[in-house]
Hints:
Elements: H1 3-6, E1 13-14, H2 20-30, E2 34-39, E3 42-48, H3 49-56, E4 75-76, H4 87-97, E5 101-106, E6 109-115, H5 116-126, E7 134-141, H6 146-156, E8 161-167, E9 177-184, H7 189-198, E10 202-205
Amino acid sequence: MLVQDIMVTEVITVTPAxxxxxxxxxxxxxRVRHLAVVEGGRxxxxxxxxxxxxxxxxxxxxxxxxxxxxxxxxxxxPMTAAPRDPVEEAAQWMRQRRIGCLPVVDGDALVGIxxxxxxxxxxxxxxxxxxxxxxxxVRLADEPGQLGTLMGSLADKGVNVHAVLSYQAEDDVxxxxxxxxxxxxxxxxxxLAESLREEGFDVRxxxxxxxx
Length: 212
């Protein structure tokens, strides 16, 4: 999945000279939390609802100036993404920088914006949660062919797999193990889990009935 698959293309924009009160009103009317700041057709900054709240707060060290404009509070030269950047890279950048949005530019043109909400929607799609079915968590040896063997077993059972995600636990004990989360097209998860256990797979979810 790429950034262009999840970005919002109708970007709400202001200019550096837009009064803060007008920018806040635009946020309320459009129900967004981030505004791209554009000047001469080029992205020059981002302003957030938090920026506006801080600027107008009674706790701010400087008294609020009713004539203040967006350029007084905006983040300049914001980090951006390109339409064909992978979604997971965009998520990593946002987490590292602790920012809530990434404007998307193609050359010099602003073509979209990605927010935390868009990334959460992408997770729902990537994990197959939008489709009816069940969830399996299987622990595999982190070796070639292990995932293929599991997928082959599910195919032999006629089980359709909607999504596959894998990760390694952070502790050293589990370093050689891969945890695989599968979204499968069946609601009979317990029966499927027991069948896989009988074949020797280490199924961690659903739990065994005697552990419920």
